[in-house]
Give the backbone structure.
Amino acid sequence: MKFAILFAAGAACLATAAIADNAVLVQSTTSTKNAGLYDYILPMVKADTGITVNVVAVGTGAAIKNAMNCDGDVLLVHSRKREDQFVAAGYAKQRYDVMYNDFVVIGPAGDPAGIAGGTDVTAAMVKIANSKSKFASRGDDSGTHSKEKSLWAMAKIDQAASSGDWYRETGSGMGATLNAAVGMGAYALSDRASWGAHANKADFKIMVEGDQRLFNPYGVMLVDSQKCPNVRSKEGQIFIDWLISAKGQAAIASFKLDGKQLFFPNAR
Amino acid sequence: MSDQTAMAQRGLMPITVQNITLTLNERILIDDLSCNIESDGMSVIMGPNGAGKSLFMRCLHGLAKPDMGQILYAGTPLDPLIRQQQSLVFQTPTILRRTVLANLLFVAHQRGIDDPKISMDYLAQLQLDHLAQHPARLLSGGEKQRLALARALIINPAILFLDEATSNLDPASIETIETNLQSVSKQGMKIILVTHDIGQAKRLADDVLFLHHGKLAEHSPAKSFFQKPKSAAAKAYLAGKLVL
Amino acid sequence: MPIYSESFAAAFGLLASSDRDLMEILALSINVSLASLVLSCVIGLPIGAFLAMRHFPMRDFLVGVFNAMMGLPPVVVGLLVYLHLSRSGPFGWLGLLYTPQAMVIAQMILITPIIIALSCQVLEDLHEDYKDFFDSLVVPKRTALLAYIIDARYSLMTVILAGFGRAISEVGAVIIVGGNIDHLTRVMTTAIALETSKGELALALALGFILLAISLAVNFLVQWLKASARRRAYV
């Protein structure tokens, strides 16, 4: 029996990958991760500051909830209203602008709703609803989902009433939703970075872009140590400071995919 | 060996069975059975199917517990120490998933007999020595039963029980087993066996306990049992007329 | 479908170049699964043996519960482990969330019922076979238990294999409690999930092939062991 316990303890150690002392845990939206931004900038963070950044990429909604459970040091998401609520509730002292990009409506080349080339997103959404063309929604309480719901509201369409009909809520991340949209020939709302980096595009194209209502700002916050005493405030702040520094901002701007910039720095 | 057996035997015999009754699912399987089994020779338990022979033997060995009555070994109720001086060979032997020798070694080890040479001697005695490293589960029926007997004998029990141990075996295996039984019996080991084979009973028995409907119908010396059975049931059975 | 050939080529390419990231992910997958497997066996085998050998009033109920728990949805287990290991949960002070240990705990909860239920079944059959003989021989319970485990070792190996298969192929629980953090908690299944979500379907499938190859290799090994056991009639 003693042997068994020793053996078990040994086995448990086997699976132990040491977490660096100066590691920061970021609760993040998925788009930054799926696009490959972290893979690009985190080695620079490590080189400049010595800090290891670990990223848990979930939807904005889940990221905020995890952070409120104190399971993260830094929050990087894109849903301005909920970020402000997060700060107001005392979970962070302040929100920092980091960067922005924009949302786009993507759809199949056949374009059943006839919205290709549009710049008025609500008009396009009305056309989609009227033609009952399929639309794949995240349906997962993410930042993109919040944005999409606000766009339907602006277009004065009760899309939820058609859920399961032409309106399909996948309840999944951006990538899974794009896969689903491509799979069933549906339109979808995506941030430009996720769509740009998505490898399974088939014949899908950007249908609507350029509307200022499609603005997609990302914010970063340090989880407040008064709410969550375990937070690594020092390292977390160093990471944030790097992101909003001239060097960090330049790094974000220089991240390109197929020659195209996906995120635009806007820290003040 | 024979001295040891004799000593142990004096410690266990006679067996006194006092009014044991065993009921299962409201069926009376052993019904107020009493008898006295003496130390000498081989006692054979006979009776038609369902008479309760095997169950009676299981009670004697402690594998089944009577609801009422008691079984005394030289005046002492059955306990683990007494049971350790008994062996039982089942009708269908349980063969460990190991080699022939390992089967024997496992049993011997339980009684502190760890010299493999002793185990090999017993295998030779039962004509199994050439199969020592053979997987035991691949033995023939006769070989398996001989291995079971070797396992029963190696612990040198005071009492050896055999529950229809030779039914369905080849004549050579029966011959080997019977020869061994006669040999150990001569050395003083008490043997109690259940059998359906009237021929075998005639060859081996010193006394016969005849069971019918869970009762002891007759307990006689072998000679008088086969020549002049006292009970009607035994008469009918020996004449081949009693089925149940 | 052309994607198969593309994925096969990608899988071979990754393996042939022993891609560092892949090797890291692969090693973590195997380590986490093995660790949870060992822990599950240490806990599960004695319980399985106990249930196989003893008859007590709640025994059948417990066996039923463990049988049902074999089908525990991984996401539910992941969620429960998350809630307990979260900083705001009862074991938050351990700081285990988003670590390999958290994944080991989740997988252990998933596969322990499998080890218990299946080993109970195997040992129960053997117990039925051996119990009268052992009772007759007055074998102590511990000796009997050891004999069961020795004599049933090849069948138990299949049981353990079933546990390993569940552990290494599971994604729902480890992605929640591990967080799929690169170089820390990314394993084969969560990497497949990530590549799928990035739309890198061929790469995801290639990783799937590699995972399948591991499962096949382990299975063939046990098959071979069992076959040689059958030749020697241990089974």
Remarks:
- Chain A has two domains: 21-101+217-265, 102-214.
- Residues 2-14 of chain A form the longest helix (13 residues).
- The mean pLDDT of chain A is 91.
